From TrEMBL:
Domain of life: Eukaryota
Organism expressing this protein natively: Kryptolebias marmoratus
Organism phylogeny: Eukaryota, Metazoa, Chordata, Craniata, Vertebrata
Protein name, per record: Purine nucleoside phosphorylase
Known pathway: Purine metabolism; purine nucleoside salvage
Enzyme class name: transferase
């Protein structure tokens, strides 16, 4: 019925009525496009998720703690992009953590794959229309802060949207007021309540010694940083750097969703020309594998606790 869609053909083939045409160069999806996918999913599942978990590189295991699971491959969901990066399984899993209905994205999308930011953030608006209230975004990143160690988990308190400075911003284009306002405030993108809860839960689970808090910077990738770029990011006040998360967080915040961002420090970013180690994606996946079980415990405990504390409810 629906064919899988790749980064380059996706918008033209799936959205004949969309605003993105070669003439306009405007990368937007129409409200009807979001509605179609939402209705398709609501017809396929009885789950009505309140929490969405976006799993970054190698972190798909976060869904394993859920019960009553129902899985859809991205390629079978109308209008959904497909994952092209190793470590991103490419499926949507509905399930329950204790009494909370959740949806997990096992794999997400990146600018460097050739997707537009409208495609990268497409699932977030689907979650909003499905009734999700809180989004927990995870990914892998390199540690800039000299104190950070490989395997640390950083609770994101703020971000720098570097692609956004250059006009690569998911909210560019006509604003649809049904999602949010034209000029959203981003000074409180990451919920303080959820950050505090994450710290509390982390301490209960005995992982305070590698739980950090800091500023995350998004770059487009796909190359890892040069030394000069890494030094610039340190000067700008960044604690870690990665290639995802910020577009999803921005769109989630725009539509009034509560956001928690957790980034796993998979490597230390080189700030020194004499450093011999070279970062690579296999190393990133290896560290994700090492920390996946603990992150899963953190995420499932957090979600259970959210429900108890009614943080999901407005
Ligand atoms: O999907 P995330 O942001 O977790 O993946 C990170 C950034 C790149 O996609 C990749 C680099 O190894 O890992
Ligand atoms: N940009 C960037 N992304 C990453 N993802 C995981 N590690 C890194 C890193 O060092 N730099």
């Amino acid at each position: 019925m629906f064919s899988p869609v790749s980064p380059c053909t996706w918008l033209y083939s799936s959205f004949p009525g969309s605003l993105h045409t070669p003439e306009t160069e405007c990368y937007c999806c129409s409200f009807d496009d979001y509605k179609l996918t939402t209705e398709w999913l609501l017809n396929q599942t009885n789950h009505r998720p309140k929490v969405a978990v976006i799993c970054g590189s190698g972190l798909g295991l976060l869904a394993d703690g859920a019960t009553n699971k129902q899985t859809f491959r991205y390629q079978d969901i109308p209008n959904f992009p497909v994952s092209t990066v190793p470590g991103h399984e490419g499926c949507l899993v509905f399930g329950k953590i204790e009494d909370t209905s959740c949806v997990f994205m096992k794999g997400h999308f990146h600018l460097y794959e050739g997707y537009s930011l409208c495609q990268v953030t497409f699932p977030v608006r689907i979650f909003k229309l499905m009734g999700v209230e809180s989004v927990l975004v995870t990914n892998a990143s390199g540690g800039i802060c000299p104190d950070f160690k490989v395997g640390d988990i950083m609770i994101i308190k703020d971000h720098i949207n570097l692609p956004g400075f250059a006009g690569q911003h998911p909210l560019c284009g006509p604003n649809d007021e049904r999602f949010g306002i034209r000029f959203p405030c981003m000074s409180d993108a990451y919920s303080k309540d959820l950050r505090t809860l994450a710290l509390d839960v982390g301490s209960e689970l005995g992982c305070s010694h590698f739980l950090r808090s800091g500023v995350y910077c998004m770059v487009s990738g796909p190359n890892f940083e040069t030394i000069a770029e890494a030094r610039m990011l340190l000067t700008l006040g960044c604690d870690s750097v990665g290639m995802s998360m910020v577009p999803e967080v921005t769109v989630a915040k725009h539509s009034g969703l509560r956001v928690l961002g957790l980034t796993l420090i998979t490597n230390k970013v080189s700030l020194d020309y004499s450093r011999e180690e070279k970062v690579n994606h296999d190393e990133v996946l290896e560290i994700c594998k090492m920390r996946a079980e603990l992150l899963q415990k953190l995420v499932t405990t957090l979600i259970g606790r959210c429900q108890l504390q009614s943080i999901n409810r407005h």
